[in-house]
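Moderator note: this is an archived Q&A kept for reference. The question asked for a predicted structure of one protein chain; the sequence and the answer are reproduced below.
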Amino acid sequence: MTVEFTADTVHGLAPSDLVREDRVAGRMYTDPQLFELEMTRIFERTWVWVAHESELPKAGSFKSTYVGRQPVIVAKDRKGTVNTLLNRCRHRGASLCEKRTGHANGFTCPYHAWSYGLDGKLRGVPYPDGYEGVLEKSELSLRKLRTESYGGMVFATFDEGIEPLADFLGDVKLWIDRFMKQGGGYPVKVLGTHQFKFHGNWKIQLENTTDGYHFPIVHRSWMASVDAETADMMSFMTDPAAITHDLGNGHSVMQMVPEHSDLDIDDGTEPLQARFATLVTELKSAGLDDAAVRKLVRAMHGTGFNLNLFPNVSMSNSFLRILRPISADETLIEHVALGPDGPAEIVDPVNRERLRIHEHFQGPFGFGTPDDAEGWDRVQRGAQAAPEMPVLVNRGLARETASPEGWPTSHVTDETGMRAAYNQWKQMMSDD
């Protein structure tokens, strides 16, 4: 039986009371004050994804991005260390870098030309004669966030006392390792990115990546646009082997195509899709043997799972989806296309085809993302009505079991992943 949050109390409930085992309050999508708490209690107190190592290939490479709503620069210094620096001059507070990516020897403020090294240290101050006795450069470095990486994924946090990244990821590390196998024997690199905004709360998108229930409904047009082999691969709704795991700390994984969860496991019986026949010919012409060709082509669609890392990144089939909260009712999404990094004669034709696949679903004129975004917008609009009415996350609750590894597990169409994220949200929002 569904019990509603009462109209008299829903706006007065503490954040921790807004999440129950099988439902959450609609207020969680719409309340600006709650959003402000999320920025400090979640995005400034946990590990937030900021870059892929391939975006920082050499000393001086940088990327500007955000941790929550705070602008940062992710830069590789001359020692090869990746630093995440607050994008704010220590003098009068101007932003130092407005370029999304690039290469630099350091960062100079455009206002008064205070200059900083790639490690954030203050290097130079123009006309220093006015600062005798009142300025100590060693005390005015850029604020540096704690930065750690795993499997090429770079994370940063404002919380210096937080657990190590490896501990925060826990059982997710296995799935990151599997995700990175889609390079087909080569390292994985970023091929390109594109961004868009939707008029909805960030948690709506966070729910989506491990929501198998919506797929055949929202993505009917995509299913109708692909070849029969691809459509059959993604017909997982009644497959009992297609399952979702709660991996702890708000993370979850949805296995849509279980036989592709670990691309190293291949008995050789699965035929390569006919649509890639030309690519097979090109790769063989480049000198690859049948086994190497098969490894690359079989990974064309990426892995057979979506991996949600709380709070801001999803590793979805063959791409990364990054969310950045802007306000209670606006979120920026960045899609990051991925492909193998190796000799041009081998990886160029592979990545050409991978980009076409990416464009077909994730691209701004694709069949997948626009349909998803319409759904997210509608959830936000609907959430304005009857704030006491709950948002249900109870699908599969009665049939949830433990996997051999001890992970709470249910069918791919169930809401195990959402419950995982909201349990973590509740825990973090309960902390003062």
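Archived answer notes: The chain has a mean pLDDT of 93.
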